[in-house]
Amino acid sequence: MIRNFAARGRWEWHVIRVGERVVALGMGVLCGRTLMLPKITFDEAFADCMPGSLLTAEVIKHAFSSPELDEINHLSEAGWHGLWRMSQDKYVDVYLIRRSIVSLLFQLPRIAMRSAYQDFVRPRIPAVVREAYRKFKRRGGRKPRRAADSRSAHSDSALTDADQ
What we know:
single chain; alpha+beta; four-stranded mixed sheet; 19% strand
């Protein structure tokens, strides 16, 4: 897939090197007039220098000077992306389908059903039902409670016991 995107001029590699050593590396996908930045990585030995932020700054400078680009999309909700004060979309669906009739026949019904759900069913679900679902839904990889959170929950229950 990367070779196909690169052959069409839609794939970019962004690199910061110190000598021969790669310190930060990112990839970019050009989609129309948008540059999408799905992944940035860096050498932990240089973490104090914030090489990922330096790389992002250079990519943004280049994008602003490029008349072919209208938008940069980080495709992430990572906390450090907030430093760049970029607006976020509620969600974005991207479908990559091979150009063959067989794969198209298998993928289109699923995409159509998901689109119908997002457009017609989801907006009509009452907020109370959505909130109840979120409370009871089990999320994988959930972080354990922080000590401060568990203390405040414990102190809240102690206050209610004392009030009674």
